[in-house]
Amino acid sequence: MEDTIAAISTAQGVGAISIIRVSGPESISIVSKIFSNKNFKDAPSHTIHYGYIVDGEEKVDEVLVSIMRAPKTFTMEDVAEINAHGGIMTTDKILELLLVNGCRLAEPGEFTKRAFLNGRIDLTEAEGIIDLINSKTDISRKIALNQVGGKVSNMISKLRDELAMIISNIEFNIDYPEYEDIEEMTVDKIKDNLGELETKINEILKESKNGEVLTNGIKTVIIGKPNVGKSSLLNRLIGEDKAIVTDIQGTTRDSVEATFRIDNLILNLIDTAGIRKTDDVVESIGVEKSLNLINQADLILFVVNYNEKLSSDDLIILDKLKGKNYITIVNKCDLDKKIDDDELDNIVYVSALRDTNINDIGKKIKELFNLEKIETTDLTYLTSARSLAILRKVLDSVKEVRKGIENNYPIDMVEIDLKDIWNLLGEIIGESYDEELLDNLFSRFCVGK
User: Among 39, 205, 224, 399, which is disulfide-ready with 303 (CB 3.0 to 4.6 Å)?
Assistant: First the structure.
């Protein structure tokens, strides 16, 4: 991080303003070389200066330049930001001048990476920035903002502090073995403390499922036999004719994906091939894919016909839905009722053709996922797959240590295992990391962030 980087931080295209960001030890002096009015050597931090970007004697653009000196910047380095008139050619020209005068083009996410490496943010806060940029609902924005603001980091740091106390108790026993009466009491205390830690981790993992749902959306699969109106339902939910609808069985042979929003909940919808026995090779591949998607889905919309009795195909699907989150969509309720719905749960009666009761599907989903209760909670969740995977590993390790204590493992071995768990928790917030992890994480950012 000895060099100075530059990149366009706003979306490229025609707009009112473009921002070109520069960070590094030479950022202020390099910008001075292409600014008309003054040398910024003595300019106070966090000041804005009016003038022109110039290429020799030629004026390139009328700009405002923000000067921010280390360490009170996002990257904790000297930073200059050029606010130019929006436009592709002008913005690219200013960036070109910066590169010619000593800057290097920033890699994706490199500004945020420098903020992390310089101690300005930790990894959960960095992941929160990504989530904030990508948030599609107000509630996912709030969850991301809690990460950016350090609430998630504080939650993990408290777990580490509690674990550090347990480790210090063990070290006391190792350092003062002559206190035999204290050793037995301390082992019991360790077991109790680990039990409390296990409970807290389980609670975090449970609550974080809500965070995953609200941030990433619900993978929702529309399942049913042919000609029950799955594609019509998808089209009605998203408000456009994305899936092909015909009276011919087997029309949908591969999955069709779309996104549907219910208040603060995103449904990632997948319309599947109708499930039935078939000799058609292509259709049978689609059927097999539909059956596999049942096991991958967070929610299943099981569609049946109001004007037909449950068929053997319906019953096969119903059997596969046992133990799953599903809603039964009884379609074509504008026709005469023939279905026996006593065997069905979480029923919503609709007519996709007539647009009848379609909004009731959203109400049922909110009820099933307890969305109203979720929206009133603290919204401090782990949402990244990386963090959750580490925390699950921590939970497994804590359980193993408790078993070891119950089996009278040597106390110094228990201490080593607990220190490994403490380090694992540190990986969540970036107290320890490897370069490949950082490269993968920050490559998800756009250039200029």
Answer: 224
Q: Looking at the whole model, is its pTM more than 0.85? A: no
The model's pLDDT over 73-90, given as tens digits with 9 standing for 90+, comes to 999 999 999 999 988 899
Give the count of beta carbons closer than 10 Å to the beta carbon of residue 244. 13
Please determine, for residue 345, whether its predicted confidence score (pLDDT) is greater than 50: yes
Q: Which of 180-184, 319-323, 395-399 has the lowest mean pLDDT?
A: 180-184
Asked if the domains 5-120 and 126-213+384-430 are classified in one and the same CATH topology, the answer is no
User: Could you tell me which CATH class the domain 5-120 is placed in?
Assistant: alpha beta
The CATH homologous superfamily to which domain 126-213+384-430 belongs is tRNA modification GTPase MnmE domain 2 (1.20.120.430)
Task: Match 């970007």 to its residue by tokens.
Answer: 53
- Which residue type sits at 377? T
Give CB contacts under 8 A, 24+ apart, made by 289-295: 289/254, 289/255, 290/221, 290/223, 290/255, 291/320, 293/221, 293/223, 293/255, 294/221, 294/223, 294/320, 294/321, 294/324
Would you identify the CATH topology of the domain 217-369?
A: Rossmann fold (3.40.50)
| Alpha-carbon radius of gyration of the chain | 29
Give which of 426, 437, 405 is closest to 186, Cα–Cα: 405
User: What are the boundaries of each domain within the chain?
Assistant: 5-120, 126-213+384-430, 217-369
